[in-house]
Design a protein that fits this description.
The complex is a heterodimer.
Chain A: H1 4-10, H2 12-26, H3 35-50, H4 67-83, H5 87-95, H6 97-107, H7 113-156, E1 161-164, E2 167-173, H8 178-195, E3 199-206, H9 212-227, E4 231-235, H10 239-247, E5 256-258, H11 261-271
Chain B: E1 7-10, E2 13-17, H1 24-41, E3 45-49, H2 58-73, E4 77-81, H3 85-93, E5 102-104, H4 107-121
Classes of the chains: A alpha/beta, B alpha/beta.
């Protein structure tokens, strides 16, 4: 068993000072964390290593005694991920403990070369495991952030707007995948019920590509809306997308499609028995024809 | 006592409001009752309100489609109204787009549709859902 743990307990003050000095020179993003915070975290970690329960060794990192240290490191990593540190900066925080431990092993009196080597090896493995644990937690923290952002984006990206009494529109922007289409479908159907709309216009001007999957999702949404008693109109089909749809053999025969949102809106108004007309302006000298729409 | 779904008569039309969870037997009973009632009162239109129906499976979906087809054979236009979004999504995911069924958002627009269509078929009716007893 290594004598290193005992040495750490005896020299914890000097170890902390040594580590802090190395940290200060290693961490470049001093704007993201204050000196005091760094010192608090480091001293807490040194304390957790030094005050580990009796019988816990440096060699056995899976021991129950190290749980508190692991939890502490995980906390630090997650907060680092949220603060915007890079993975290497987060790892350096732990890895810079290594030379400090080596120094302590070297100061031990009566160590011959063999003993020193084994102490260094122990310290090396211990810190490596700490660093790996830190990196794992860091990545986990990052994943959480990404998942949260994805959810927020899903909510943001599917607004259903009311164009008129009984006419809603859903302007789609960005690539449609299964998860997003599900949200789109649900929010559209919900809006149809809430606003009592007989017509729903799905505008796909902002959808960059339409493949068979997207088309299938669209058709499903349209069918579901029809089952509820509303009629769907697709608008904003660009020439390339029209070509793709035909080349892929997607059957849009039963779906009303219009090239512009305005055309779809006009059709919806017509079908609900309304009409948009230009008001006559007798005083206007221009010869623009008054076109009833 | 056997559970039944009430079928109300309004002039030429029959009104069915499903307010309980449909199970298979109930659906079949409704199918029997409704077809019998259509021929009995010579109904020209059937309105099925499923706005309270929250759970649906493929059997119920098919029974609804069957009822609509049977009613059409018996010369009554059928319209299903008030389907919930969740029910619509479920039916679509089950691959049942129910192409033969007429749908409407609510009872009001369903009734409007029936008046329009039945009015066209029945020249003498003028499209007004009167309560004339035959």
């Amino acid at each position: 068993m290594s004598k290193l743990l005992g040495a750490i307990q005896q020299n914890r003050e000097s170890l902390l000072q040594d580590w802090l000095e190395r940290l200060r020179s290693a961490i470049q993003r001093r704007d993201l964390i204050t000196d005091q915070e760094l010192k608090n975290q480091a001293s807490e970690i040194v304390a957790l290593i030094a005050d580990v329960p009796q019988g816990t060794t440096l060699e056995d990192f899976n021991a129950a005694g190290w749980q508190a240290l692991k939890a502490m490191l995980a906390n630090i990593s997650v907060s680092r991920a949220a603060a915007g540190f890079t993975p290497s900066e987060t790892a350096i925080f732990v890895l810079s403990l290594k030379p400090a431990l080596f120094a302590i092993a070297r100061q031990q009196p009566g160590n011959n070369a063999d003993e020193l080597f084994s102490e260094v090896l122990t310290a090396n493995e211990f810190v490596d495991k700490l660093a790996l644990h830190t990196t794992d937690s860091y990545i986990h923290g990052r994943d959480q952030i990404i998942i949260r952002q994805q959810e927020e984006m899903l909510e943001l990206s599917t607004p259903v707007v009311t164009l008129w009494d009984g006419i809603v529109a859903l302007p789609l922007i960005g690539t449609l995948d299964s998860a997003r289409t599900q949200v789109v479908m649900e929010s559209l159907l919900q809006a149809i019920v809430q606003t009592n709309s007989k017509f729903a216009i799905i505008d796909i001007t902002g959808v960059p590509t339409v493949d068979t999957l997207v088309a299938q999702h669209l058709l499903k949404t349209i069918t579901a809306a029809r089952l509820m008693g509303a009629e769907c109109i697709i608008s904003g089909i660009r020439p390339q997308i029209a070509q793709t749809i035909v080349h892929l053999g997607i059957n849009l025969q039963d779906v009303v499609t219009k090239s512009k949102l305005a055309d779809a809106f006009r059709l919806a108004l017509e079908r609900s028995g309304r009409k948009v007309v230009r008001l006559d302006k007798p005083s206007d000298g221009n010869v623009v024809g008054n076109r009833g729409v | 006592m056997m559970e039944r779904i009430p079928i109300l008569r309004m002039g030429n039309y029959l009104l069915v409001t499903i307010q309980v969870d449909m199970h298979d037997k109930l659906a079949l009973t409704l199918q029997d009752d409704l077809t019998a009632r259509i021929s009995e009162v010579d109904a020209k239109g059937v309105l099925i309100d499923i706005s309270s129906l929250e759970i649906v499976d493929s059997f119920i979906g098919r029974t609804l489609a069957n009822i609509a087809s049977m009613a059409r054979v018996l010369d009554a236009e059928t319209v299903v109204v008030g389907m919930q979004p969740a029910v619509a999504i479920t039916l679509v995911e089950l691959g049942m787009s129910l192409p033969g069924i007429r749908t409407a958002l609510n009872v009001e627009s369903g009734m409007e549709y029936l008046r329009d269509t039945v009015g066209v078929h029945e020249g003498s009716d003028d499209g007004i859902g009167d309560s004339r007893e035959d």
